[in-house]
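Researcher: Please translate sequence to structure tokens.
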Amino acid sequence: MVKAAAQTRSKAGKSPFQCSECGWTAARWVGRCGECQAWGTVAEAGAPKSARITAGPVSSPAMPIAQVSAIEAESRATGIGELDRVLGGGVVPGAVILLAGEPGVGKSTLLLEVAAQSARNGHRTLYVSGEESAAQVRLRAGRTDALVDELYLAAETDLSAVVGQVDVVEPAFLVIDSVQTMAHPEVDGAPGGVTQVREVTGALVRLAKERNIAVVLVGHVTKDGAIAGPRMLEHLVDVVLAFDGDRHSGFRMVRATKNRFGPSDEVGCFDMVDTGIVEVSDPTGLFVSEHSEPVAGTCVTVMMEGRRPLLAEVQALVGPSAAPQPRRTTSGLESSRVAMVLAVLGNRAGLKLTDQEVYVATVGGVKITEPVADLAVAIAVASSVTDKPIHPGLIAIGEVGLAGEVRRVGGLEKRLAEAARLGFTKAIVPADVPNRSKDLKPLDMQAKYGLRIFAAGDIRAAMHAAGIL
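Model: Translation complete:
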């Protein structure tokens, strides 16, 4: 019967069914899109319109690009340095920012602080809550010292009511918490659905551009960590920020995955405390432990979070095992890379690990995904096996290959400069440093940063430089 209906519509000249996310078309309705594999996004498209378009009125006449004023697009500082760092200097009037994160990570707390700072700077701000009542938000504002005269609060879930609030308050900064709770009165579907989220976001984008209001939208994420709603949502907004952190730690990070007004690889650091959220301008101390005396099985490396170098400590514990398959446990590191480094240590450095249990973890719950930590993992494991602690002022930077070679890494100068700033005196780096004018050789780096540089070509040379073998 569905097939007959599809044939009838085709004969009538109507368009087929179309996916609302990617535009994929089908001759009949299906529950899952055949292109983007999204569920429930295929609906019957409207009747085809004529391809001929007549000229219409223009909003403003075109002019030479050099004569267009850029004053209205200048960023305005939020008063929170770490967020301004990620945004590229601040919030641009008329921009739409999407902040996404897991439940309970602190999105509402962060944006309430941003709204309060904006109000303190003399910009009228409207905070619209669709998930909590006004009284609940007021309690949080009292706890975080966000009670400011120019900060207005409303609890609405209807988009037309939100527009009415904007007409009355006339804010320069608008926060919507969250976009999945808003409902467009002229669109079918439940709030949070694909159609509703798309239409609500589109209406808020038009509102921001027409009235030159900076708008921040709170977005939910799925169990896979992706932003809930259609993929088109990320294309509609100007800036996409990801807010994440470990539930067992107060440390939080804001990452820019899309930014039309600044860099898209910056990271801002925050700490959740009892009185709200505070920015952390120098988070290195959170990932490096202090020991009264040298301890075997530890090594410090320098990772890059966006453009920011951060020191991270790797700890390893190796001990005998009576089990036929010794345990390999990792925390904060990729288990596959740690297993590869252990295999290289056994075959290229002569360390016997087949009957040993190995535990490797990072300090402070930080996650290291780049291969720059390979050398630090190798040195920490070897230090634990031999029970020889390394020099407390030593850092190790480098990727380890299957042949035992130590490979180059990007941003070496920034990493060394950060280590020198924090008082480290020795560094093991790859010997394979590019011989170009903009890159420094080990001796040049030693003179520039005041570090004693050890250039290691392979894993054995790195062990000797660390004083382990």
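Researcher: Any highlights?
Model: Residues 194-211 form the longest helix (18 residues).
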